[in-house]
Design goal:
This protein has helices at about 1-20, 30-65, 65-75, 75-95, 110-115, 120-140, 145-150, 150-155, 165-185, 195-210, 230-245, 245-255. By secondary structure, it is mainly α. It folds into 2 domains: about 1-65, no CATH class; about 110-255, no CATH class. Helix 3 (about 65-75) runs parallel beside helix 9 and helix 10 (about 195-210) packs across helix 12. The longest helix has about 35 residues, at about 30-65. The protein is globular, with a radius of gyration of 26 Å.
């Protein structure tokens, strides 16, 4: 497509140069000079505006074929544009935005932080169950993959589609779409901060009984002296512990978790 843009601009430059050259008595040399000047200007226009705009349009066209992104584009254009900006920046660095997948799902952190607190208990529960399955898949393959998946900004991102089958990828995106849809259609009251703090303290106490001083890993990076395996194991155990909580407690913890 880039080549076609330059060919088209070259043709336009030639057409424009013809009448302009006649103003200088139509000398062939004059036409050539004008053509290269106009083509130079068009090249700058293409490089810094036309091609970037086409690439952004192309990213949007492909991204909205994925249901969750289509939903975001229709219901939250501002967030969608921020995601597209992230994808475009990824594209400029990697030269292949078609590889964007769950490996770059940190781009959706803003979405979870916005909708998780007000979504339904069922949808956030289903999403976290899928997240747990993904972490276990990666941890079995290589704990460094799990590490990069948990902390994509600090240690990733990873190309998760290399390790997740198509079914799991689709479940992930569909579950995320359900989180957003339920938040929009049947919004819940956000969890009470005091109740959230109390339940997180109970969770911290339970994790401390199981892991001792290693529980400080849950405070996030940097992880002094803790390798990827231990970090992933304790995060997986924490999620499993949350999912075993009574429903009324579990929903508060999960809906608060992504807004921390």
């Amino acid at each position: 497509m880039k080549i076609l843009i330059y060919i088209l601009l070259g043709a336009i430059a030639g057409i424009i140069a013809v009448p302009l050259s006649k103003l200088w008595k139509g000398e062939k040399k004059t036409w050539s000079v004008l053509f290269f000047i106009i083509m130079g200007l068009f090249t700058l226009l293409a490089k810094f505006y036309l091609i970037p705009q086409y690439e952004i349009w192309d990213i949007k066209r492909e991204i909205v074929e994925i249901p969750v992104y289509k939903l975001i584009s229709e219901t939250d254009p501002q967030t969608f544009n921020l995601i597209i900006d992230d994808f475009y920046n990824f594209h400029k660095k990697n030269k292949n935005y078609r590889q964007l997948n769950l490996a770059t799902k940190q781009n959706l952190e803003m979405v979870l932080a916005k909708y998780a607190p007000i979504t339904s208990n069922r949808s956030i529960n289903e999403y976290v169950e899928i997240l747990l399955r993904e972490l276990k898949v990666l941890n079995r393959k290589d704990s460094k993959l799990c590490f990069g998946f948990l902390f994509p900004k600090e240690f990733g991102p990873i190309k998760a589609t290399k390790y997740f089958d198509k079914s799991l990828q689709e479940e992930d995106l569909n579950a995320l779409a359900k989180v957003i849809r339920d938040a929009l259609n049947t919004p819940q009251e956000p969890p009470n901060p005091q109740e959230s703090d109390r339940l997180f303290q109970e969770l911290a106490d339970q994790m401390y009984r199981a892991w001792g001083k290693d529980t400080q890993i849950l405070e996030g990076p940097p992880f002094a002296g803790a390798g990827p395996k231990k970090v992933c194991d304790i995060y997986i155990d924490m999620i499993e512990t949350i999912l075993k909580l009574p429903p009324e407690k579990r929903s508060v913890v999960l809906r608060s978790f992504f807004s921390l």
